Amino acid sequence: MKISIIGTGYVGLVTGSCFAELGNKVICADNDAAKIKGLKKGIIPIYEPGLKELVIKNTRKKRLKFSASISEAVRSSDIIFIAVGTPSSDTGEADLTGIENVARNIALNMNSYKLIVEKSTVPVETGLWVKRTISTYIRKKVRFDVVSNPEFLREGSAIADFMHPDRVVIGAESKLARDLMLELYKPLKSHVVVTDIKSAELIKHASNSFLAAKISFINAIARICDKVGADITEVAYGMGLDKRIGPGFLNAGIGYGGSCFPKDLDAFIHISEKIGYDFKLLKNVREINSQQQQLLLHKLKEHLWILKDKFIGVLGVSFKPDTDDIRNAPSIDIVNYLEKEGAHIRLYDPSAMPKAKKLLKKVHFCQDAYSAARGSDCLLILTEWDEFKSLDLTKIRGLLRRPLIVDGRNMFKPQDMQKKGFTYVSIGRPVVLGR
Ligand code: NAD
């Protein structure tokens, strides 16, 4: 099939490359001319395992092209995916300027039947607005359909998630639209949910909010564990064995971040309010999440007392492992706070440092975890990269000024850390004191 993807970011680039890999002819378009110029030369703007290889392979096979011309992309394809960003505005409402802009652009360039696919995460009823916008601005008398096809990929495992999804959701109104989408996704042999557009839009917001709620729930239980001296890892394990609960998303820590959960929750709370429902549950989820960062800082201060002129080694800045994405990463606020208090930050992250350097100007960026630990008063773990699990902890202990680790991601077992001589502070688990 001839496909174009408008918006070549984390979702657009992965979606385009994967559809090309499945044998379709794909144009990935973006209004960021520099990004497109780079992609044409094989420069991948994001770190995502396996993506570079997929882009290069499919570009060579002439199944994948890049263009800065949205009109060209629209005119030469039958199926158009909208995958532009839908950030939070100041009020928390989803800013749909990009979606509207693309919808108008599509309308002006439609030369034959087009299937327009809402891939970006949008509030319920956006599909309706996209349809209205296209009907208003369309020049030629050609038919079109709008479908909702929300994306559930996770950064860090995006290609595997796209190729082997738990489910594909298709919200469609016409038989033609539904059949085209089913044909397109047929090679994935996945479970497909076919529904109406509004329900499909809601599936995405409801799923992300539910996952965020699960994280906040376990973080709230961790607070109780802290108070009574229980161990949240044990509690989460015992809960997760119940098939009705499941073990996923039960890791206590400094809370969720990233470009999706915070903004999708804001948008869902906002749209609910707009249609007359006060989603108090989600407001609490959001509040618990923001308290987790304060909790970590409180724990840190309990051990370091004064932060001014302390050296703090920070491990991890990306909002989660296996990505270089730092959008809404809890680490950014934490580092900013520590710097405001006068601490000196020595930071290491396996892949997100180039992006972090643009944002954290005063931080000293290190070549590895050991350099971050050298001469520091404390090692603070903010992202649970696998690489950190295999650190030589005896070496780390020797490099630190004092053997203190504050772990915002519960990466290690407290007893093991005590044996290694660390004072080890984590979330929802008893503190162990080093020798
Ligand atoms: P992104 O910021 O990485 O990419 C968006 C791209 O759209 C950018 O390259 C930008 O230049 C381009 N763009 C913006 N306005 C445009 C316009 N008018 N015309 C052409 N291009 C335009 O964003 P992302 O992370 O890929 O997210 C895209 C959407 O997918 C969002 O709605 C997001 O919530 C959703 N989503 C993201 C993820 C994720 O893990 N990142 C997962 C599922 C869904």
Task: Give an overview of the whole structure.
It is a single chain. With 435 residues, this protein is α/β, with parallel strands linked by helices. 46% of the residues lie in helices and 14% in strands. It contains 18 helices and 14 strands. It has helices at 10-21, 33-40, 51-60, 70-75, 97-109, 126-137, 158-163, 175-185, 197-228, 232-240, 261-274, 280-304, 330-340, 353-359, 369-373, 386-389, 393-399, 414-419, and strands spanning 2-6, 25-29, 64-67, 79-82, 114-118, 144-148, 168-171, 192-195, 311-315, 344-348, 364-365, 378-381, 404-407, 423-425. A 6-stranded parallel β-sheet has the order 3-2-1-4-5-6, sandwiched between helices. A 6-stranded parallel β-sheet has the order 11-10-9-12-13-14. Strands 7-8 form a two-stranded parallel ribbon. Helix 9 (197-228) crosses helix 11, helix 9 (197-228) runs parallel beside helix 12 and helix 11 (261-274) runs antiparallel to helix 12 (280-304). The longest helix has 32 residues, at 197-228. It is globular, with a radius of gyration of 23 Å. The model has no long low-confidence stretch (mean pLDDT 97).
Ends apart, CA distance between termini: 65 Å
Q: Percent range for helical residues?
A: 40-55%
Task: Please state the average pLDDT score.
Answer: 97
Q: Which geometry do the CA atoms define?
A: globular
Strand order of the largest sheet: 3-2-1-4-5-6
The total of beta strands comes to 14
Give a quick account of the main beta sheet: strands, pairing sense, barrel closure. 6 strands, parallel
Question: How is the secondary structure organized here?
Answer:
Blueprint: E1 2-6, H1 10-21, E2 25-29, H2 33-40, H3 51-60, E3 64-67, H4 70-75, E4 79-82, H5 97-109, E5 114-118, H6 126-137, E6 144-148, H7 158-163, E7 168-171, H8 175-185, E8 192-195, H9 197-228, H10 232-240, H11 261-274, H12 280-304, E9 311-315, H13 330-340, E10 344-348, H14 353-359, E11 364-365, H15 369-373, E12 378-381, H16 386-389, H17 393-399, E13 404-407, H18 414-419, E14 423-425
Parallel strand pairs: 1-2, 1-4, 2-3, 4-5, 5-6, 7-8, 9-10, 9-12, 10-11, 12-13, 13-14
Helix pairs in contact: 1-3, 5-6, 9-11, 9-12, 11-12
Nicotinamide-adenine-dinucleotide (NAD) binds at residues 6-12, 30-32, 35, 70, 83-86, 98, 101-102, 120-121, 151, 153, 155, 259-260.
